[in-house]
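Final report, closing paragraph on structural work. Over the funding period we assembled a curated collection of sequence-structure pairs, and we close with a single example.
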Amino acid sequence: MRNLLFFFLLSISIPGTSQLKSFTIGPKGDTLNGIDQNGKKQGKWVNRVDEVRGEPGYEEEGEYRNNRKEGGWRVYTLSGDLAGMEFYRWGNKNGTCQYFVNGNLVREENWRALNPDKQYDTLQVEDIDRLNVYKTVIVKNEGVAIRDGVWKFYDSETGRLTHTQTYTLGKKEIPKNPVATENSTDDKKTVAKPKEVLDFEKKTGKKKVKVQNGSVY
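Its predicted structure, as stored:
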């Protein structure tokens, strides 16, 4: 009887958990790492990847929808520093993703997600030589995101833009002036830190994510 009462109160205090097979409880009492009755990840998640063969480990937090990453995700070093801000659609990167070293922007990537439920996807692509002129392109879906748009690279200490690369549906464009676009080391432009980074730096201490295992079974 006591155990039945415990699970009844748990289902009241944590809305939606009755639909989950398992979950964890975060330090603020929020429900994390939920897996539904079909074995699919749902809702807010925190993933940890340990260091492997010299590759640095990291933690990431965001939301899953039917086992696919969706919306904004944040990436942290294992010491708690913000390392990246990523955006997903259908489980693939989509839009502008930014990466940081010691709070400084070092790389800005642009991606286009394809719907993995379709064998082919129809996309509208802007003509690189004529602004606001679009053409329809049919792309075979390989189940992964494709590079699309301008990628920017910055000096981690000065914040200066060092070079750019432009992609159209995964194909790297050859610039008309390679010296100016690919090797613009004399570019004096600097980039202010994003608001998210400034807000993060205002916080005291390092970010630590602690969870407590829980299950409705």
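The radius of gyration is 21 Å. Confidence is low (pLDDT under 50) at residues 1-15, 180-188, 208-217. We thank the funder for supporting this effort.
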